[in-house]
C-alpha cells in the first residue's frame, strides 16, 4: 500500500459519504484574545450596600466581577466582616466558605497592602497607596474563556513580577458572573517602610 492509499484510508474514517466531518472533538485553544478593561472608582466601598450601588455591580461581565472582587478585598483593612459580606455577594448563590474566609485572613492579615497593590499609582516605595481615583486594569488572554461559563482573568500587582489570576463562573440563568477562586493575593514585595534593607 502506497503513501496515498494510507492517507486516503485515514481520512475515509474521518469523513463520511456526505463529505461532512463526523463528531471529532477539536481542542479548544486560543478562542479568545488579549483584552484589557480599565475600571475607575472614586472610593473604596465600606459596606455591601455601597458596593451594590456601583454600576459594575450588575456583574454582567467577568471583568466587572473581577474589578469588584479586588475592591471588596480592599475593605478588609477597615472592616473584615463587611469585606466578607461583599465577597458573599460576589460569590453568587452560595456564601463564601469558612476555608475561603481563612484563606483571605491568612493572606491579608498584616499585609492589607496586597489588595491595594492592584491599583495604579501603588508601589512598594509608597506602601502600596494608590492614586485616586482608584484605577485598575483587568486583563484577559487567549485562554481566559476556554471553557463555557468559566473564565480566568488577570490583575497586575505593582509588587509582583507577573499578573495574578481570579477564576470566575457565569450563572447562565441570569448572565451574572461571580468569582470562584481568588488566586491573586499571594505575597508581594514588602513595602519599603517595613523593609529594614530598603
What key phrases describe this protein's structure?
198 residues, alpha+beta, two-stranded antiparallel sheet, 6 helices, 5 strands, disordered N terminus
Structure description:
This protein is α+β, with helices and mostly antiparallel strands and 198 residues long. The chain has one domain (30-191). 28% of the residues lie in helices and 18% in strands. The chain contains 6 helices and 5 strands. The protein has helices at residues 3-14, 48-52, 62-74, 80-90, 98-108, 113-116; strands at residues 35-41, 134-140, 150-155, 164-171, 176-182. Strands 3-4-5 form a 3-stranded antiparallel beta sheet, with helices on one face. It has a two-stranded antiparallel ribbon with strand order 1-2. Strand 4 (164-171) and strand 5 (176-182) form a beta hairpin. Helix 3 packs antiparallel against helix 4 (80-90). The radius of gyration is 22 Å and the shape is globular. The model is unreliable at 3-30 (pLDDT under 50).
Amino acid at each position: 500500500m502506497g503513501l496515498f492509499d494510507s492517507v486516503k484510508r485515514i481520512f475515509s474514517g474521518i469523513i463520511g459519504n456526505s463529505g461532512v466531518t463526523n463528531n471529532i472533538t477539536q481542542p479548544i485553544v486560543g478562542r479568545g484574545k488579549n483584552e484589557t478593561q480599565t475600571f475607575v472608582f472614586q472610593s473604596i466601598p465600606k459596606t455591601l450596600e455601597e458596593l451594590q450601588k456601583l454600576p459594575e455591580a450588575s456583574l454582567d461581565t467577568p471583568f466587572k466581577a473581577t474589578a469588584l472582587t479586588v475592591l471588596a478585598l480592599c475593605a478588609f483593612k477597615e472592616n473584615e466582616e463587611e469585606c466578607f459580606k461583599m465577597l458573599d455577594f460576589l460569590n453568587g448563590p452560595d456564601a463564601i466558605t469558612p476555608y475561603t474566609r481563612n484563606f483571605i485572613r491568612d493572606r491579608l492579615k498584616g499585609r492589607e497592602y496586597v489588595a491595594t497593590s492592584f491599583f495604579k499609582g501603588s508601589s512598594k516605595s509608597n506602601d502600596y497607596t494608590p492614586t485616586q481615583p482608584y484605577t485598575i486594569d483587568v486583563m484577559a488572554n487567549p485562554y481566559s474563556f476556554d471553557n463555557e461559563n468559566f473564565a480566568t482573568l488577570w490583575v497586575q500587582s505593582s509588587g509582583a513580577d507577573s499578573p495574578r489570576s481570579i477564576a470566575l463562573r457565569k450563572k447562565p440563568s441570569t448572565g451574572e458572573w461571580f468569582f470562584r477562586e481568588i488566586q491573586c493575593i499571594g505575597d508581594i514585595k514588602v513595602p519599603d517602610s517595613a523593609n529594614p534593607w530598603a
